[in-house]
Prior knowledge:
Helix content: 40-55%
Order of helices and strands: EHEEHEHEHEEHEHEHEHEHEHEHEEHEEH
Strand order of the largest sheet: 2-1-3-4-5
Amino acid sequence: MQDEISAFSIARIAYVGGNDEAFGALTTAFADAGYSLVSHEDALKADIGLIDLRGKQLSSKKAQAVAGQLRKSSPDSSILILIDPYIDATARKALRRHGELVAMLTKPEGLIERCRQVLRLRNVAEETGERLKSLATISRLNEFPPIAAPATPLKILIAGEAGPTALAAINALNPISEQCVCVFSAGQALRAVENTKFDCAIFLPTRDNDPLMSLARALRRHPKHASMPIIFPLADPDDMANFAPRGASDFILTDHVATDLAAKVQLSARRTRLLKTMRRFLGACVGDGVRDAGSGAFTANFLAEHGARICARADQTDHHLSMIVLKLESTARDNGEPEPGRRALHQAARLINRVTRAEDLVARISTDTFLVMAPATTEADATKAALRIQGVIENTVFRSSDDELLYGIEVDIAACTRPVGLCIEETVAFALTVLRDYSDGTIAAK
Length: 446
């Protein structure tokens, strides 16, 4: 068994077009965020291609050629294009055909947040494709919903004080939306979100401590509204550095609202609808030998087949593949049931699926032991996820089959990163060894 653990960054970003000073500044900023920025000469296996056109004479054909070269080196990479905020609408429209535009001056926090959102979409799409391949190749009957985004008209929320930006947003969005709701405060926006299902929201905060910022952060943490894109029009690109750490994930300059907002909203809404469809597909895959009837987790047989595909994909892309092992033990708070905690065990196991992400693979490998495979996740993030799962289960009270006895569930957890090159059988054995070492105290809990 190999002992070397992959020390790769969260993502690999290929950079082309800027000078050495810009490359150095972005390299430091991305490294602080956990990403690796490399030259376009090392674009192989890049997750994102970043084209810097700031301060250059713009040419759509040149951008197309550079984007084509990046995609040739790394076909799976997404393209982001850095532009100056003052370029005209015609040039922006031409460049938008080749990648997503990000206006930036000196502070890269908004760019890093956009990269983070693109990677999240990529991870879900990648697991959807691999899961579909596994379901198509196994020799068992299985069922899964179709992957098709709805084409219903858009419903958009605009929240903020009345002014030129709000008026420009209304004029830009009315032709593409079925319903465009305008409110003036965070409280009105909250009530609107609770009563109507919006495809996208435009927030217009007027100060740093605007309640709309708190509402945006709360919506991102809410399971029902987390996927709704929220766009912040800003007057200065450097203001993204203040808004990005506080829940904002997408931005547009106020000078670009009249010409670019409609296209941006349409793209964000379509991506969100597709993302919801893929997550629904990942959570609904069922069939003979695919999911365990009691716990709702995937069976060991499906883990052996699909896990091999995940391990091979991780080696091909140089991505992290972390694992979380959970051992559940039910403890009766009363006596009198012949099999204490069996129903509670199944209820706790189903909580694991609700707490983990859609792209994570939750499999039952024994009666009370579950394995979570988390693609493109570092060991530190996997440890945080394991502690979250442990906290949710251990702070939940479960009932017996006759609803008379109460049970608590104790969870032993361990998180680790898969060593490069291990097959799925060796990977599961390695994870169980780590769990045993944690339980015995050989490894101190993190």
